[in-house]
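User:
Note these tokens:
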Amino acid sequence: MHGPVVAVAGQETLWQAMDRMLTAHLRHLAVVDEGRAVGLLGDRDLASVWALDPLGLKHRTARDVLGSEPRFVAPDIDVISASERLLGAGLDALLVVDETDRPVGVLTDHDLLKVLVDLYGNRDEHGEQVSRHPNMLPG
């Protein structure tokens, strides 16, 4: 998980959201109404709208493109459950929210891959590459 969360209000246009995303160098923004999470907007969502109607970015709101099922998880979700949720729904990120639905972080597929590398990576205690067959998966 990483943060702090950058958010966009649900009524802001996708153009405004894209500007915020590009300025912050992010791929995901929390969509909030009155500080409470209502969804997660990704760069893929923006690309989909743009591909169908480039002017749609100026006329549609962040809330307009959110899916019907929120992509939220609690901060204490375990790595396996988070991975299953991402894989099962075909997602690349989940919004981490507290008990009052306030966004506290974004958990991405890259975060989960980092956990895998940290657990099974080919580095010694000094960060040096350890020779191991590249196709060998941990037991």
The mean pLDDT is 88. Strands lie at 7-9, 28-33, 36-42, 72-73, 93-97, 103-108. Residues 41 and 70 are 11 Å apart (CA to CA). The helical segments are 14-24, 43-52, 56-59, 79-89, 109-120.
